Structure formats: structure tokens, C-alpha cells
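Figure 6 in text form: structure in, sequence out.
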């Protein structure tokens, strides 16, 4: 081929190549222009003498890499400077004097999950005090016939006790029996704020109460709960009625209280501190929502926290009083809440252990965590778990005791595996304890929740004339 022809051919091929590239790039500009980051990590071969470090995986095993928090880690502990924090996370650990031990992403908002219950606890104790009791009142619009032990008229029950259950319903029947009342010539009327056995349905609660009043209709579960209550309250063998019972000739329904109803007596729940302890130990969402409603719902809970801690609404926003759904709290704001709660409890000679579960000792969400011989009883806190919301959420906040003193901590993990987050929290807290001389259990004598909630009592209106002692 002549030299001139070879040159023309080369230019022709070059033009076609350039044209082809321009067409392909036009439709795919964005991916081709993305930055490509190559991360090199130094790897060392496993020694031949370490076969236990090699795990065989099946063909369906999926290994998901752990995402690392991009917030810088500020710490006074060198071993924690490069400690991998999984997920989108915030961590804040401080001494009781306010000295920061670890901080990472503490001013960013996260979903605290059931750590919201710390705020609800603070709000109700701040508003009502730890000794407040929920009253369930029994009324009638009829007259009492002593000779037959009959009330001619309706019996009314009202109240907002969130822990009212089978055993308390039987206790109402027993108290009516003790006063000489065994028959109601009328209906059982329950107000719409009444709840029984952790249900929001007043209609369902009224039917349960109706059946539990009458020993012939009482369920086996109600009888078991009653016997357990007698044992826990220390009243077994003290009752004069073997099977308390009140019968009705009418039906049961939900309605408002008539103006002519007369109060017979009130059943008072265990003190607020015991109700809160039960709610926190098992992270009971029903109790949290009912307690939050007492102060006006999640918005009111938020306002109480904001006003008493000085945090901004953008740093502490609640959509629920239980932690379900989408809530937003910064670790820094939660730390301030822990401090004001701790101070308020001290006014009543109480500690976190009076309202939160003690890890490795109390039944509930922290029962199986920090439960070794060395660490059991050294962590008092509140868990938080949401499996799907915000990509998976796990939280842990409270107080950790070490031989070098006590620390307050907040760990918010988000966007990842809940089980992996919990494993990280356990190891991270234990590592911090190790830097302060090791774990040190607090002085704590566990009390069963059944015993705590059995501390009920009755009260009577002045001038009561129906069979009171």
C-alpha cells in the first residue's frame, strides 16, 4: 500500500474510534466521571498453626462488611482512638464531673428507639413524683341493701391505671365482699379511660373486668394471677374470702359517669417508681404510651425535657412516648437528660437502679448482657431496638460503674445489624471499664417486679357508710 494511502487509512480509523467513544460517553457520563477510590489494607497471612481462625461457610452465607462511622473519634483513651464504630453512630461517654472520655458524632441526630422511655420516665417523675399512685375508683348510682348484700343500681369503674390486671379486678371483688356487697342488681359500667391487662380497648377491658368479678366466670389465668398477687403482697392466708365474687343481673358496657354516682372506694396502684421500673426493665411500649399521655403525649414529654435541660427542639424531637417510629435525639441531648434525671432522682434519695434495669441481674432487656461474674451489676441503663426503622437501630445509655469511678454513656447505633450493634456495645463498654480499672458492681438488692407491683392499697371517701372497717 502506498505511503499516502496508509496515512489516509490511519486517519480514517482514528476518526471512527473518536466518534464511537463520543457516542458511548454521552449516554453514560455520570458513572464514568465518578471518583474511584481504592482502599488498600495491609493483610498478613494466617500462620499455619492457627486453623481455628478459619471458618467454613456454606454456599448461601452472605458476609456483609461493617460500615464505619465517618465522625472523628475524640477520646482521652488511646486504645479507643481507632476503635471501629459500626453503622451511622454517635457515642458520648463522660465522667460524673462532665469530663469527656469518648465523643464521636454526639451532636448529630439519631433514632434513640426505646431510649425515649428515659425521657418519658423523667417527665412523669418530674410532674407527679415517684410516690404517685393511679386510682381505680368504684362508684354506684343505687342503694345498698345490707340484709341481702345487694346494690340496687349500676356499678361504675373508672381509672387510668396502666398496670391494672386480673389480680386487681379480683381485689375489687374482694373489697366489695369485705364491705358486704355480693350482688349488683344492675349493670357494670366502665369509663372510656379504663384499661386492663395492657390493652387500649375499653370495650375489651370492660368485658374482662365483668368476667373476672364473677368467680363462676373467672378465667384460670385470672385465678393464677390472684394467687400470685396474694403471695407477693404477703396476704396469702390473711383473706377471709376464699374466692371473691360479685354477680350482676345486667350487662357490661362503656359509658360516661353519671352526675349522681357516689364513690364507694378507690384502688390505688403501686407507686409510680415501681410502675416506671417495670416499664423500663421490659421496655413495655403500652406503659410508656400511657405514662406519656398523662403529661400530654410525646410533644409534652419533649417540652419537659427541653425546658429542663436547655436542649433545642432540633436536638430532641419525639413522635412517640415509647420510642416506636421515627424520633430524633442527639447523644449530647440524651447525656443532658441523663444528668437532670440523675439529679432529680437524688432529691428523692433514688438512683438510676430504682427506675432502670441493672444489667445481668434484673429480669428484662438487660438480663443477659454484662452478666459475667466480673461485670454483673456494673451497668445500669436503657436499651433501644428497632429492627427495620432507619435501617436497623440499637441504642444503650445509662451509667457504668468502674473501679476508677462512675461514667455516664450514650451509644446510638443506626443503619445496620441489631445483633452486631449489641455485640459492639457490650465489648465497647467493657473495654472502657477496663481502662478505668475494670468493672465494679454497684450495691444493689434485686426485687422482683411482681413484688414491686403488689404494693397496692385501698382508700375511702370521708363519711363512707357502706361496710367500711
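Output sequence:
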Amino acid at each position: 500500500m502506498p505511503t499516502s494511502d496508509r496515512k489516509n487509512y490511519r486517519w480514517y480509523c482514528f476518526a471512527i474510534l473518536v466518534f464511537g467513544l463520543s457516542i458511548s460517553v454521552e449516554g453514560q457520563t455520570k458513572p464514568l466521571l465518578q471518583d474511584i477510590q481504592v482502599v488498600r489494607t495491609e493483610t498478613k497471612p494466617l500462620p499455619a498453626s492457627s486453623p481455628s481462625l478459619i471458618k467454613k461457610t456454606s454456599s448461601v452465607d452472605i458476609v456483609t462488611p461493617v460500615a464505619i462511622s465517618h465522625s472523628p473519634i475524640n477520646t482521652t483513651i488511646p486504645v479507643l482512638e481507632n476503635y471501629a464504630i459500626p453503622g451511622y453512630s454517635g457515642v458520648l461517654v463522660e465522667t460524673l464531673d462532665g469530663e469527656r472520655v469518648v465523643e464521636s458524632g454526639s451532636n448529630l441526630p439519631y433514632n434513640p428507639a426505646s431510649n425515649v422511655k428515659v425521657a418519658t420516665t423523667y417527665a412523669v417523675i418530674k410532674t407527679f413524683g415517684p410516690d404517685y399512685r393511679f386510682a381505680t375508683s368504684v362508684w354506684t348510682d343505687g342503694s345498698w341493701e345490707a340484709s341481702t348484700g345487694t346494690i340496687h343500681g349500676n356499678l361504675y369503674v373508672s381509672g387510668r391505671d396502666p398496670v391494672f390486671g386480673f389480680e386487681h379486678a379480683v381485689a375489687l371483688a374482694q373489697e366489695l365482699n369485705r364491705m358486704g356487697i355480693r350482688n349488683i342488681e344492675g349493670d357494670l359500667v366502665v369509663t372510656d379511660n379504663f384499661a386492663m391487662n395492657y390493652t387500649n380497648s375499653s370495650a375489651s377491658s370492660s368485658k374482662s373486668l365483668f368476667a373476672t368479678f364473677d368467680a363462676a366466670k373467672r378465667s384460670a389465668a385470672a385465678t393464677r394471677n390472684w394467687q400470685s398477687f396474694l403471695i407477693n403482697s404477703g396476704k396469702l392466708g390473711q383473706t377471709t374470702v376464699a374466692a371473691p365474687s360479685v354477680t350482676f343481673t345486667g350487662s357490661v358496657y362503656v359509658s360516661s359517669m353519671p352526675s349522681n354516682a357516689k364513690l364507694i372506694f378507690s384502688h390505688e396502684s403501686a407507686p409510680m417508681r415501681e410502675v416506671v421500673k417495670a416499664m423500663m426493665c421490659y421496655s413495655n411500649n403500652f406503659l410508656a404510651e400511657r405514662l406519656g399521655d398523662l403529661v400530654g403525649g410525646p410533644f409534652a414529654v419533649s417540652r419537659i425535657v427541653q425546658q429542663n435541660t436547655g436542649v433545642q427542639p432540633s436536638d430532641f424531637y419525639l413522635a412517640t412516648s415509647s420510642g416506636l417510629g421515627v424520633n430524633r435525639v442527639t447523644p449530647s441531648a440524651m447525656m443532658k437528660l441523663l444528668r437532670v434525671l440523675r439529679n432529680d432522682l437524688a432529691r428523692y434519695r433514688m438512683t438510676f437502679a430504682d427506675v432502670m434495669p441493672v444489667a445481668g441481674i434484673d429480669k428484662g432487656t438487660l438480663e443477659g448482657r454484662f452478666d459475667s461474674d466480673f461485670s454483673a451489676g456494673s451497668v445500669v441503663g436503657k436499651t433501644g431496638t428497632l429492627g427495620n426503622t432507619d435501617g436497623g437501630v440499637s441504642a444503650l445509655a445509662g451509667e457504668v460503674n468502674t473501679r476508677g469511678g462512675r461514667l455516664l454513656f450514650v451509644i446510638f447505633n443506626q443503619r445496620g445489624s441489631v445483633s452486631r450493634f449489641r455485640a459492639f456495645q457490650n465489648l465497647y463498654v467493657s473495654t472502657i471499664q477496663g481502662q478505668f480499672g475494670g468493672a465494679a458492681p454497684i450495691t444493689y438488692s434485686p426485687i422482683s417486679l411482681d413484688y414491686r407491683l403488689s404494693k397496692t392499697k385501698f382508700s375511702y371517701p370521708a363519711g363512707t357508710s357502706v361496710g367500711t372497717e
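Caption detail: The CA atoms of residues 92 and 103 lie 5 Å apart.
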